[in-house]
Amino acid sequence: MPKYLKQFMLKVNEEVLKSTVQRAKERNIIIPTFAQQKNPELIPEKIKKQVKPLGLWDVDPRNLFRITWKNDTTTGLYGDVNFVELPSSLTGVKARIVGLVGKYFPTGAHKVGAAFGCLVPRLVSGEFDPTRQKAVWPSTGNYCRGGAYDCALLASPAIAILPQDMSPERFNWLKEIGTSEIFATPGCESNVKEIYDKCWELRKERGENIVIFNQFEEFGNSIWHYNLTGNAVLEVYEKIKGPRSRMAAWVSATGSAGTIAAGDRIKHAHPHARIVASEALQCPTLLNCGFGGHRIEGIGDKHVPWIHNTRNTDTVVAVDDENCMRLFRVFNTPSGQEMLKDAGVSAEIVEKLSLMGISSISNVLSAVKAAKFYDLDENDILFTCLTDSAEMYQSRLVELATEHGKLDTSRALADFERFMLGEGSQNMMELTYHDRKRLHHFKYYTWVEQQMRDVEDLNNLWDLEFWEDVYSPEVIKHWDEMIVDFNERTGLLKAL
Hints:
By secondary structure, the chain is an alpha/beta fold. It has a domain at 83-106 and 225-430: Rossmann fold (3-Layer(aba) Sandwich). The longest helix has 22 residues, at 219-240. Strands 1-2-10-7-8-9-11 form a 7-stranded mixed beta sheet, with helices on both faces. The chain contains 22 helices and 11 strands. 51% of the residues are buried. The protein is globular. Helix 10 (262-269) links the parallel strand 7 and strand 8 (274-280).
């Protein structure tokens, strides 16, 4: 067996698994495989019939089968990967910028998939006992929402931990979904350490009564994105490419380092493609070993996640959060939308701009900067992730109106020209080998000194073989086999 593969091959705890299977049987829970999430055509027809009438956000176990990039909201079933291509009239660059749409996941954000990747392998192996343990979801927003939702579908109590300055919509939704406990930690998007501190506090208080699913160190997060998000990008590329097209880049906020792991899959298929890591200029952690606070909700910073493969990151870009906030207002107010149509952006695209939340806009701006930095043309296709939608940030529009006054068409045009068309290639760095190693070493301060990780394990993360084993097809195959076995034990699938 390859050197590192063994640690991802989970051992079955029969005693715990017995009670978990019984609960699943009582609550009518059938768990989809990763293969079914990647290719919903593999989902049994009887399951599809049960899924079809459900609302996308309904708290029903069958909505586990909607954790996929391929939800078709018109039919209630499945289609192609949900994506939108942003035209030059909007981006101001010749290169094609394509965003995978996260809104059409349950909860309205793709993080529900990452949470599934962390929770389910432990659930079906018996490493996590939902009958006596609570699942803890430390996050800056969407991940703990995804975890709470997955737990609601899997009959497991959930604890959410997120900074107090996150949008009210996040907290309200967590209450509505029936989250067992919600902890608001000090600070804003950038205050990740405070989240970790709360986790340590809960560990000391509750011991084995909780299991912490820390997205920043859980490889289930990056493995899900490698296999699901990465392959979704490759499918879209094959669909839209022309005879001279080039897979130019995968652009992603570093965040938990889950979404950016899709770049590893893309690079495996297209070695010349670049992985561009994005962050807020107000907290330029990778760019300048910096710190601070910012308003781009959902991307985290002030540390390098344990699961970030820094050896595979080519470029770092920092985006001003003011640019994101101003464009968010332009895209989601009638005067801004009217201006964009007058400026030559099609009504169809204007209608789709609500698919972008604040971090989505940051990703798009990062792609624009990368296109300018590398002099990309109409043959180059950059992919990014539209993590969530404007629906989650309506309160921010009210705040922006209070701060800047009413947005008229002339002001909207000025903001569009300055913050989108005028975006330059400043605050970017192309990483050398030693730059990447420096970012790898940066992990020491968070993970060894603060989170008690072993330095030998840290050194292993610089080994190319380690990442080959993490993303080995054998890992996801093994997890799928455990899911199939779990479903067979409940007997529910056979009884349909």
